[in-house]
UniProtKB/TrEMBL annotation:
Pfam families: MreC. Residues 158-305 form the Rod shape-determining protein MreC beta-barrel core domain. It comes from Abyssibacter profundi. InterPro entries: Cell/Rod_1, Cell/Rod_MreC_2, MreC, MreC_beta-barrel_core. Belongs to the MreC family. This is Cell shape-determining protein MreC. One of its GO terms (cellular component) is plasma membrane.
Length: 337
C-alpha cells in the first residue's frame, strides 16, 4: 500500500480532520487509480511463482484427464461451446466451396449447350450420310441390273416431277447431247418405269407407266397370256381392262413386257397382279396390278438403248461439250405442267 492510499484510508471515516482536509487537497481520491504511483508493499505472488503454479495445475489436469473420466463433462461442455467458433472459422472455406459450385454449374451449362449444338450438327450430317448411303445402294442395284442386260444403258437422274396428280411425268437430267431419243424406255433396278416423250439438248421428259394416257404391251409370265397394261392414274397403279372373263389370271402373277410394238424390249418386269374381280354380267375381268418399278423411291434410273440405236456419248466428251458451250455440267429443267 502506498503512502497516499494509507492516508486516504485512515482519513476516509472522518473528513473533518484538518490533516485529512489538507490531504484531500494534495491527494485526490481519483489519484488512487493512477498506476504510475508504485505501491509501497506489493501484493500477491511473483510472476515466477504464478508460472510454476499454472504448470503444476496443467500437469494435474492432464494426469486427471488421462487416468480418470472426471473431466469428460467439462470436455463435452467445452466442445459444445466451441461449435459456434468452429462454424465461424469454417465460413470462409464454405463460401469458397459455394463460389466454386456456382462456377462449376455455369461451366457445365456452357458445356451442355456446346454439346447440344454438336449433336444437332452431327445429326444433320448423319441424315445426309444416310441419304448418300441409300442413294449409293440404289446406284449399285442399277449397275447390277445393267450387267444383266444386253442393251446399252445410261444412268439418269430425276430432277423434277409433275405436280398434277392425274399426270405422271418426270424430268430427267439427260437429253439429246447424251443420245436420249423420243420413245426411249426407262427402267430401274426392279422393272419398267416409262418412256421418254420429249427431248431437249440437256434434259428430257418421260411419262410413267401409271399415267392414264400410257399403255404397255405385257404378258403374264406364268401362262404367256398377252394383254395391255394401262396406267390407272391413281393408287391402283396398273389396270388390265381387256382380259376375258375366262382368262387364267391369279393374284401374284408377274407381268413382263412382251416386246410387241417395238417400243419396249421384251422380258422386263412391269407389275404384279394384286386384285382380280369379275362382276356378274360383264365380259371382261377387272384386274389391277402394282408396278414392279419403285416409282416413288429414289431418283436414279436407267435409259435403255435398243439394238441399232446410236451409241451413247462418252461422259468426258459430254462434259467437254457442255463446257465449250458455256453450259453447266448437269442441266436443271422445270417440271412439266
Amino acid at each position: 500500500m502506498s503512502l497516499r492510499q494509507f492516508f486516504v484510508y485512515t482519513c476516509e471515516p472522518s473528513r473533518t480532520h484538518p490533516e485529512c482536509s489538507d490531504l484531500d487537497g494534495r491527494f485526490g481520491v481519483d489519484d488512487l487509480h493512477n498506476d504510475s504511483i508504485r505501491p509501497l508493499f506489493p501484493r500477491g505472488p511473483s510472476l515466477g511463482l504464478k508460472a510454476i503454479l499454472l504448470a503444476i495445475m496443467s500437469i494435474g489436469l492432464m494426469f486427471a484427464d488421462d487416468r480418470t473420466d472426471t473431466l469428460n463433462p467439462v470436455r463435452s461442455f467445452i466442445a459444445v461451446a466451441a461449435v459456434p467458433v468452429q462454424w465461424m472459422a469454417s465460413l470462409p472455406n464454405q463460401a469458397g466451396e459455394v463460389a466454386e459450385h456456382f462456377a462449376s454449374r455455369q461451366s457445365l451449362l456452357e458445356q451442355n449447350a456446346e454439346l447440344r449444338d454438336q449433336q444437332l450438327h452431327l445429326q444433320a450430317r448423319l441424315q445426309k450420310l444416310d441419304g448418300l448411303a441409300a442413294e449409293n445402294a440404289r446406284i449399285r442395284a442399277l449397275l447390277l441390273s445393267s450387267k444383266r442386260l444386253h442393251e446399252q444403258v445410261l444412268i439418269g437422274e430425276i430432277v423434277s416431277s409433275s405436280m398434277d396428280p392425274y399426270r405422271h411425268y418426270v424430268t430427267l437430267n439427260k437429253g439429246g447431247m447424251e443420245g436420249v431419243y423420243k420413245g426411249q424406255p426407262l427402267i430401274d433396278a426392279h422393272g419398267v418405269m416409262g418412256q421418254v416423250v420429249e427431248v431437249t439438248p440437256m434434259s428430257s421428259t418421260a411419262i410413267l407407266v401409271t399415267d392414264p394416257n400410257h399403255g404397255i404391251p405385257v404378258e403374264i409370265n406364268r401362262t404367256g397370256l398377252q394383254t395391255v397394261a394401262h396406267g390407272a392414274g391413281d393408287s391402283r397403279g396398273l389396270a388390265l381392262p381387256f382380259l376375258p372373263a375366262n382368262a387364267d389370271v391369279q393374284v401374284g402373277d408377274l407381268l413382263v413386257s412382251s416386246g410387241l410394238g417395238g417400243r419396249y424390249p421384251a422380258g422386263y418386269p412391269v407389275g404384279v397382279v394384286y386384285d382380280v374381280q369379275h362382276e356378274s354380267g360383264e365380259h371382261f375381268l377387272d384386274v389391277s396390278a402394282r408396278p414392279a418399278a419403285r416409282l416413288n423411291q429414289g431418283r436414279e434410273l436407267l435409259l435403255v438403248w435398243k439394238d441399232g440405236a446410236p451409241p451413247v456419248t462418252n461422259v468426258a466428251e459430254q462434259l467437254d461439250q457442255r463446257r465449250d458451250a458455256g453450259l453447266p455440267a448437269f442441266a436443271q429443267s422445270a417440271s412439266p405442267q
